[in-house]
Design brief:
With 267 residues, the protein is of the alpha/beta class. It has seven helices and eleven strands. The protein starts with a strand and ends in a 7-residue tail after the last helix.
Length: 267
Protein backbone atom coordinates (compact mmCIF):
# COMPACT_ATOMS: atom_id res chain seq x y z
CA UNK A 1 0.00 0.00 0.00
CA UNK A 2 1.84 3.00 -1.33
CA UNK A 3 0.73 6.65 -1.38
CA UNK A 4 2.64 9.31 -3.34
CA UNK A 5 2.05 12.92 -2.25
CA UNK A 6 3.07 15.56 -4.79
CA UNK A 7 3.84 18.87 -3.08
CA UNK A 8 4.32 22.29 -4.67
CA UNK A 9 6.16 25.38 -3.52
CA UNK A 10 4.62 28.84 -4.00
CA UNK A 11 5.81 32.40 -3.28
CA UNK A 12 5.09 33.66 0.22
CA UNK A 13 2.83 36.63 -0.57
CA UNK A 14 3.43 38.04 2.90
CA UNK A 15 6.92 38.98 1.72
CA UNK A 16 7.62 42.12 -0.34
CA UNK A 17 7.89 40.65 -3.84
CA UNK A 18 9.80 42.40 -6.60
CA UNK A 19 9.30 42.22 -10.37
CA UNK A 20 12.38 41.23 -12.40
CA UNK A 21 13.89 43.65 -14.95
CA UNK A 22 12.21 41.66 -17.73
CA UNK A 23 8.84 42.74 -16.34
CA UNK A 24 7.36 39.28 -16.88
CA UNK A 25 8.42 37.39 -13.75
CA UNK A 26 9.20 37.80 -10.09
CA UNK A 27 12.77 38.57 -9.07
CA UNK A 28 14.04 35.22 -7.73
CA UNK A 29 16.10 36.88 -5.01
CA UNK A 30 12.96 38.46 -3.53
CA UNK A 31 10.95 35.24 -3.47
CA UNK A 32 10.64 33.13 -0.33
CA UNK A 33 8.94 29.85 -1.10
CA UNK A 34 6.46 28.08 1.17
CA UNK A 35 4.41 24.91 0.87
CA UNK A 36 1.08 25.48 -0.87
CA UNK A 37 -1.82 25.35 1.59
CA UNK A 38 -3.73 22.63 -0.26
CA UNK A 39 -0.55 20.57 -0.59
CA UNK A 40 -0.04 20.89 3.16
CA UNK A 41 -3.43 19.17 3.48
CA UNK A 42 -2.31 16.64 0.86
CA UNK A 43 0.65 15.70 3.04
CA UNK A 44 -1.56 15.43 6.11
CA UNK A 45 -4.06 13.19 4.28
CA UNK A 46 -1.23 10.92 3.17
CA UNK A 47 0.06 10.69 6.74
CA UNK A 48 -3.44 9.87 8.01
CA UNK A 49 -3.55 6.97 5.54
CA UNK A 50 -0.16 5.85 6.79
CA UNK A 51 -1.46 5.74 10.36
CA UNK A 52 -4.85 4.19 9.67
CA UNK A 53 -4.09 1.90 6.72
CA UNK A 54 -0.37 1.13 7.18
CA UNK A 55 0.42 2.87 3.91
CA UNK A 56 3.93 3.80 2.83
CA UNK A 57 4.15 7.51 2.02
CA UNK A 58 6.53 9.07 -0.49
CA UNK A 59 6.56 12.85 -0.95
CA UNK A 60 7.86 14.49 -4.10
CA UNK A 61 8.65 18.12 -4.97
CA UNK A 62 9.71 19.63 -8.28
CA UNK A 63 12.39 22.24 -7.63
CA UNK A 64 13.43 24.73 -10.32
CA UNK A 65 14.78 27.50 -8.07
CA UNK A 66 17.28 25.52 -5.98
CA UNK A 67 15.74 27.01 -2.86
CA UNK A 68 16.62 25.97 0.70
CA UNK A 69 12.92 26.15 1.56
CA UNK A 70 12.27 23.15 -0.68
CA UNK A 71 14.69 21.00 1.28
CA UNK A 72 13.14 22.20 4.54
CA UNK A 73 9.66 21.20 3.37
CA UNK A 74 10.87 17.72 2.42
CA UNK A 75 12.69 17.23 5.72
CA UNK A 76 9.57 18.49 7.54
CA UNK A 77 7.52 15.87 5.72
CA UNK A 78 9.97 13.19 6.85
CA UNK A 79 9.83 14.53 10.42
CA UNK A 80 6.04 14.30 10.33
CA UNK A 81 6.18 10.65 9.34
CA UNK A 82 6.71 10.31 5.58
CA UNK A 83 8.82 7.29 4.64
CA UNK A 84 10.69 8.80 1.68
CA UNK A 85 11.22 12.21 0.09
CA UNK A 86 12.25 12.94 -3.51
CA UNK A 87 13.51 16.24 -4.86
CA UNK A 88 13.21 16.49 -8.64
CA UNK A 89 15.55 19.16 -10.01
CA UNK A 90 14.60 21.00 -13.21
CA UNK A 91 16.66 23.90 -14.64
CA UNK A 92 13.69 25.71 -16.22
CA UNK A 93 12.49 28.42 -13.83
CA UNK A 94 9.07 29.18 -15.29
CA UNK A 95 7.29 25.86 -15.61
CA UNK A 96 3.73 25.66 -16.85
CA UNK A 97 1.37 23.27 -15.08
CA UNK A 98 1.24 21.18 -18.24
CA UNK A 99 5.02 20.69 -18.22
CA UNK A 100 4.98 19.97 -14.49
CA UNK A 101 2.43 17.23 -15.10
CA UNK A 102 4.60 15.76 -17.86
CA UNK A 103 7.70 15.77 -15.65
CA UNK A 104 5.94 14.17 -12.68
CA UNK A 105 4.37 11.55 -14.96
CA UNK A 106 7.75 10.68 -16.50
CA UNK A 107 9.40 10.40 -13.07
CA UNK A 108 6.62 8.10 -11.84
CA UNK A 109 6.70 5.94 -14.97
CA UNK A 110 10.47 5.44 -14.76
CA UNK A 111 10.53 4.43 -11.09
CA UNK A 112 9.07 0.95 -10.45
CA UNK A 113 8.22 1.81 -6.83
CA UNK A 114 6.39 5.01 -7.74
CA UNK A 115 4.69 3.43 -10.74
CA UNK A 116 3.14 0.76 -8.51
CA UNK A 117 1.65 3.32 -6.08
CA UNK A 118 -1.97 2.80 -5.09
CA UNK A 119 -2.78 6.50 -4.70
CA UNK A 120 -1.24 9.69 -6.06
CA UNK A 121 -2.37 12.77 -4.15
CA UNK A 122 -1.84 16.45 -4.81
CA UNK A 123 -3.46 19.69 -3.73
CA UNK A 124 -6.47 20.84 -5.70
CA UNK A 125 -4.90 24.22 -6.48
CA UNK A 126 -2.20 26.76 -5.61
CA UNK A 127 -2.21 30.55 -5.54
CA UNK A 128 -0.43 30.45 -8.91
CA UNK A 129 -2.70 27.78 -10.35
CA UNK A 130 -6.27 28.43 -9.23
CA UNK A 131 -7.92 26.21 -11.84
CA UNK A 132 -6.11 23.16 -10.48
CA UNK A 133 -5.26 21.26 -13.69
CA UNK A 134 -2.17 19.43 -12.37
CA UNK A 135 -3.98 16.35 -11.03
CA UNK A 136 -6.24 15.73 -14.06
CA UNK A 137 -3.33 16.34 -16.46
CA UNK A 138 -1.14 13.94 -14.46
CA UNK A 139 -3.92 11.32 -14.39
CA UNK A 140 -4.36 11.60 -18.16
CA UNK A 141 -0.66 11.12 -18.81
CA UNK A 142 -0.55 8.10 -16.49
CA UNK A 143 -3.80 6.65 -17.81
CA UNK A 144 -5.40 6.67 -14.34
CA UNK A 145 -8.81 7.81 -13.08
CA UNK A 146 -9.00 11.17 -11.34
CA UNK A 147 -11.37 12.70 -8.79
CA UNK A 148 -11.35 16.12 -7.14
CA UNK A 149 -11.69 18.28 -5.23
CA UNK A 150 -11.79 15.72 -2.43
CA UNK A 151 -12.60 16.65 1.17
CA UNK A 152 -12.89 13.18 2.69
CA UNK A 153 -11.76 9.74 1.61
CA UNK A 154 -11.76 6.12 2.73
CA UNK A 155 -9.59 3.74 0.69
CA UNK A 156 -10.09 0.00 0.53
CA UNK A 157 -6.68 -1.22 -0.60
CA UNK A 158 -7.67 -4.88 -0.49
CA UNK A 159 -10.74 -4.16 -2.61
CA UNK A 160 -8.66 -1.91 -4.88
CA UNK A 161 -10.94 1.12 -4.58
CA UNK A 162 -11.35 4.39 -2.71
CA UNK A 163 -14.57 6.06 -1.62
CA UNK A 164 -14.22 9.83 -1.72
CA UNK A 165 -16.40 12.88 -1.18
CA UNK A 166 -16.22 15.41 -4.01
CA UNK A 167 -17.12 19.04 -3.37
CA UNK A 168 -19.47 20.95 -5.70
CA UNK A 169 -20.60 24.62 -5.66
CA UNK A 170 -23.44 25.69 -3.36
CA UNK A 171 -22.46 23.21 -0.65
CA UNK A 172 -23.34 20.11 -2.68
CA UNK A 173 -21.31 16.94 -2.13
CA UNK A 174 -21.11 13.71 -4.09
CA UNK A 175 -19.83 10.32 -2.97
CA UNK A 176 -17.83 8.34 -5.52
CA UNK A 177 -16.12 4.97 -5.59
CA UNK A 178 -12.94 5.13 -7.67
CA UNK A 179 -10.88 2.09 -8.70
CA UNK A 180 -7.20 2.02 -7.71
CA UNK A 181 -4.66 3.13 -8.68
CA UNK A 182 -5.98 6.68 -8.98
CA UNK A 183 -5.06 10.36 -8.75
CA UNK A 184 -6.97 12.53 -6.28
CA UNK A 185 -7.01 16.32 -5.86
CA UNK A 186 -7.11 17.09 -2.13
CA UNK A 187 -8.99 20.13 -0.91
CA UNK A 188 -8.90 19.37 2.80
CA UNK A 189 -7.47 16.55 4.91
CA UNK A 190 -9.48 14.68 7.52
CA UNK A 191 -7.63 16.67 10.20
CA UNK A 192 -5.73 19.99 10.25
CA UNK A 193 -2.06 19.70 9.19
CA UNK A 194 0.04 18.60 12.15
CA UNK A 195 2.86 20.55 13.74
CA UNK A 196 6.36 19.16 14.05
CA UNK A 197 9.10 20.68 16.27
CA UNK A 198 11.81 22.53 14.39
CA UNK A 199 14.45 20.64 16.40
CA UNK A 200 13.22 17.35 14.93
CA UNK A 201 13.50 18.75 11.42
CA UNK A 202 17.03 20.00 12.11
CA UNK A 203 18.06 16.60 13.47
CA UNK A 204 16.88 14.91 10.28
CA UNK A 205 18.82 17.41 8.18
CA UNK A 206 21.95 16.24 9.99
CA UNK A 207 21.29 12.51 9.79
CA UNK A 208 19.40 11.85 6.53
CA UNK A 209 19.96 12.74 2.90
CA UNK A 210 17.22 13.51 0.44
CA UNK A 211 16.87 11.55 -2.77
CA UNK A 212 17.61 14.08 -5.53
CA UNK A 213 17.06 13.18 -9.17
CA UNK A 214 17.36 15.26 -12.33
CA UNK A 215 14.21 16.01 -14.24
CA UNK A 216 13.77 13.70 -17.23
CA UNK A 217 13.78 15.26 -20.68
CA UNK A 218 10.30 16.08 -21.95
CA UNK A 219 9.92 15.94 -25.72
CA UNK A 220 6.48 17.33 -26.44
CA UNK A 221 5.03 19.98 -28.70
CA UNK A 222 4.30 23.16 -26.71
CA UNK A 223 0.60 23.91 -26.37
CA UNK A 224 -0.39 27.55 -26.95
CA UNK A 225 -1.30 29.20 -23.66
CA UNK A 226 -1.89 32.64 -22.23
CA UNK A 227 1.08 34.92 -22.87
CA UNK A 228 2.26 37.03 -19.94
CA UNK A 229 3.05 40.47 -21.30
CA UNK A 230 3.81 42.50 -18.20
CA UNK A 231 3.85 42.31 -14.40
CA UNK A 232 3.79 45.35 -12.14
CA UNK A 233 3.42 46.01 -8.43
CA UNK A 234 0.13 47.58 -7.27
CA UNK A 235 0.35 51.34 -6.91
CA UNK A 236 -1.29 53.16 -4.03
CA UNK A 237 -3.05 56.18 -5.53
CA UNK A 238 -5.44 57.26 -2.80
CA UNK A 239 -6.57 56.15 0.61
CA UNK A 240 -10.14 55.16 1.31
CA UNK A 241 -12.58 57.95 2.10
CA UNK A 242 -14.91 57.19 4.99
CA UNK A 243 -18.44 58.56 4.60
CA UNK A 244 -20.01 59.46 7.92
CA UNK A 245 -23.41 60.74 9.03
CA UNK A 246 -26.96 59.48 8.91
CA UNK A 247 -28.13 57.09 6.20
CA UNK A 248 -29.55 59.99 4.22
CA UNK A 249 -26.33 62.03 4.51
CA UNK A 250 -24.14 59.06 3.53
CA UNK A 251 -26.43 58.33 0.57
CA UNK A 252 -26.13 61.93 -0.69
CA UNK A 253 -22.34 61.90 -0.28
CA UNK A 254 -22.08 58.60 -2.13
CA UNK A 255 -24.27 59.93 -4.93
CA UNK A 256 -22.05 63.03 -5.24
CA UNK A 257 -18.91 60.87 -5.47
CA UNK A 258 -20.42 58.67 -8.17
CA UNK A 259 -21.63 61.69 -10.15
CA UNK A 260 -18.26 63.42 -9.88
CA UNK A 261 -16.52 60.35 -11.31
CA UNK A 262 -19.02 59.91 -14.11
CA UNK A 263 -20.37 56.68 -12.67
CA UNK A 264 -23.91 57.94 -12.17
CA UNK A 265 -26.14 60.55 -13.90
CA UNK A 266 -26.33 63.99 -12.27
CA UNK A 267 -29.40 65.32 -10.52
Amino acid sequence: MHVVAILRMVPDVVEDLEVSPSGTALEPESVRLILSECDDHTLEQALLLRESRDAIVTVMVLDSLDSPETEEVLYTALAKGADAAIRVWHPERLLTTRRMASIFARVIERDPTLKSADLILTGVRTIADLEGPLAPLLARRLGLPHLGPVSRMSPDFSGRSVTAIREYPNGIRGEFEVPLPAVLSIQAAGKPPRYVPVAKVRDLMMTRKLKCIPSPAIDETPVPSIQLIEMRKPRVLEHAEMLTGTHEVVARKLRDVLVARGLAPGA
